[in-house]
Write a structure and sequence with these properties.
alpha+beta; Beta-galactosidase, Chain A, domain 5; 14 helices
Length: about 650
């Protein structure tokens, strides 16, 4: 395995081997790179044009962090059409793992042998085999997550990579001999309409990538996920429960409805009560989706003002939250016609269905958002902000030397505005949402406390999606819907609640209509969640077992095991096999705890959990008995 870089400069010869049109890698510049120095953390090359290329590969704990820096040390402008964030060659692998993603179906694992992709080497080691994937635009998790893992099935070794990039990206796997090369970064000129011109004396640094090696897919994923450094607000570090009223009113929140909800959930252990979309509608029957953008609180839904609602929520002991889609606007808003503030392509506003996009590269847009978003948060004392994003601006916008660079810079300025909000309101809890899970990539996740895991509000696939995301984001940030209805059976309520133990518990629905028996189940669930939340936050997922393929008709069952080690009190010995993994130094005995979260689907009753429970003692549990279809149960385990 060797670290290197992929770079293409305008004017380069393209690589041969029938790759032109499929890849820009292997360019004339790369073929002629001269290595001039190498340390444990950086390899420096000279190009034949006289530029410097720095490949930074710094080991940090269990991962290696990559950046590539291009420095134009010539006397002429240089235009980059491809620059990798990371590149590795001479990999001995034969299987590929990717995480696919569509709306309400985030993170489904796609595992393929390279031979399935027709990627065996040719008889003459000639002609490139290429698998290139990614996405174009401002929804980085759409069709695929910016993640890959490669496996050697003979040795059981894995290598995985995550890109920290919220705009257009790509990953390439290539072969023209026995070994494989892997690289990824900004979507290039062919794939993402991106190129970047660097003036003499200037430089350009790629987005970050993180690489990890391990002995299983979950081992590699755990290392990659734990390398993420999210900005968790102080009030959110103990994984408090959320109530979001979206699935109660479906875009028509009102003071009366919120007050009914607040009275019902008071004293339950819930910390946040979040007002979702529609609070700005001029009439009750207006469509919340097409009127977003002007952000004037509704005088119909909130006749005494939005402050009265926030005050009422606080009076019942909750932190009030509110929803914005601050980077976009709907066609019925006044903002939709203010084209001087909007993104354009070829001089026309970028219009996708009923959505247009604010151009956060412009100071006037920041001023607008400060007036409409930041001011409302400050003046009304909101401590929780849900930021939604319901369309993709696509591969290109005006304003830079290339369409792709326009998208990249626009997204970076959006991220800067998230930072601005956190600087202005240091205790603000921010939730990252994009039609559910379309922004669940590391650079966005590091800016926020939480993220909406999906728009799968009441689907039976919720446990599947939530488990998928353990490979990609921290469960402590993965907010999972638990929608409760008055017609729900006890098993349905328990199925719903136990699914949320795979991440952050977010209640919704007409809880004020639940019977006392139904609400008592919810209260039991909240108490059990609080008891085990440290395992959700600090544990390690060691098993995700399910035979399921078709999410439209889930069959069988799913079992997820998340293990946790802690130091026991007043004991001075440590079990040798995991002494190095303990949380504290010195002689002590570690106590192992775990959560086993099980859900049955159609035909999945009475699952065989023998292997997963082997060596564990069941200390407590919450849920149904798993003797029927569509039941859920959480086991609290301790190593015996």
């Amino acid at each position: 395995m060797e670290f290197y870089a992929e770079l293409r400069l305008r004017g380069d010869e393209y690589n041969d081997g029938y790759g032109n049109g499929l890849t820009l890698s292997g360019s004339e510049t790369v073929r002629n790179l001269e290595e001039v120095s190498k340390t444990d953390s950086e390899t420096v090359y000279h190009t034949k044009q006289g530029h410097i290329l720095r490949v930074r590969h710094e080991k940090k704990g269990d991962v290696t962090v990559f950046h590539t820096v291009f420095e134009n040390t010539s006397s002429e402008e240089a235009t980059i059409e491809l620059l990798s964030s990371f590149a590795i060659r001479d990999l001995d692998v034969d299987r590929m793992h990717r995480s696919t993603s569509f709306w309400s179906a985030e993170g489904k694992l796609l595992s393929q042998d390279l031979v399935e992709l027709n990627m065996e080497k040719s008889w003459a080691n000639h002609g490139f085999r290429i698998e290139k994937f990614g996405q174009a635009g401002s929804m980085p998790v759409r069709k695929f997550f910016p993640f890959i893992a490669l496996e050697n099935t003979k040795t059981g070794m894995f290598i995985g990579a995550q890109l920290y990039l919220a705009s257009s990206w790509q990953i390439e796997v290539m072969r023209n001999r026995e070994t494989v090369s892997l690289h990824g970064g900004i979507a290039d000129r062919d794939f993402g309409q991106w190129y970047k011109t660097i003036r003499p004396g200037g430089s350009f640094e790629s987005p970050k990538a993180v690489i990890a090696e391990g002995t299983s897919l979950l081992d590699v994923c755990d290392k990659l996920v734990k390398a993420q450094s999210p900005k968790i607000a102080s009030s959110d570090r103990d994984l408090p429960v959320i109530f979001n009223e979206y699935c109660t009113t479906w875009g028509s929140p009102s003071f009366e409805n919120l007050e009914k909800t607040a009275k019902r959930i008071e004293g339950s252990g819930i910390r946040y009560l979040v007002i979702d979309c529609g609070w700005y509608k001029k009439t009750d029957d207006e469509n919340w989706f097409v009127t977003a953008g002007d952000w004037n609180p509704s005088q119909v839904l909130f006749p005494d003002g939005i402050r009265a609602a926030a005050d009422m929520i606080r009076s019942h002991g909750f932190i009030p939250g509110i929803w914005f889609e601050m980077e976009n606007c709907g066609k019925e808003s006044e903002l939709y016609q203010k084209t001087e503030l909007l993104q354009t392509r070829d001089g026309f506003p970028v219009t996708v269905g009923t959505r247009r996009f604010l151009d956060l590269r412009k100071k006037a847009v920041w001023d607008y958002l400060d007036e409409k978003v930041l001011k409302l948060l400050k003046e009304n004392g909101f401590g929780y902000l849900k930021v939604d994003y319901n369309e993709n601006m696509g591969a290109g916008v005006d304003g830079e030397e290339s369409y792709g660079e326009g998208v990249r810079k626009s997204v970076l300025r959006s991220q800067d505005y998230f930072r601005h909000l956190s600087e202005e309101l240091p205790d603000l809890v921010i939730e990252n949402c994009a039609s559910g899970g379309h922004r669940l990539e590391p650079s966005m996740m590091e800016l926020v406390s939480q993220a909406s895991f999906s728009d799968a509000h009441e689907c039976t696939t919720i446990p599947l999606i939530a488990a998928n995301l353990h490979r990609l984001i921290r469960p402590e940030q993965s907010q999972i819907w638990a929608v409760l209805r008055k017609n729900d059976s006890a098993d349905r309520i328990l199925y719903t609640l136990t699914a949320a133990f795979l991440g952050r518990l977010c209640l919704s629905g007409e809880v004020f209509d639940l019977t006392d028996e139904q609400w008592d189940l919810a209260l039991q669930g909240i108490r059990f969640y609080q008891k085990v939340s440290h395992i959700i936050r600090d544990g390690r997922t060691t098993a995700i077992e399910t035979p399921l393929q078709d999410y439209t008709r889930p069959l069988g069952y799913q079992a997820v095991l998340r293990e946790y080690k802690r130091k026991s009190e007043n004991v001075r010995t440590c079990e040798p096999e995991h002494k190095s993994e303990c949380e504290s130094e010195g002689d002590h005995k570690c106590v192992k705890e775990a959560l086993l979260i099980v859900h049955t689907f159609e035909g999945g009753a009475n699952p065989d959990l023998t292997s997963l429970l082997s060596g564990w003692t069941v200390k407590d549990s919450f849920g149904s008995d798993l003797t029927s279809d569509f039941q859920g149960k959480v086991f609290l385990l301790e190593r015996s």
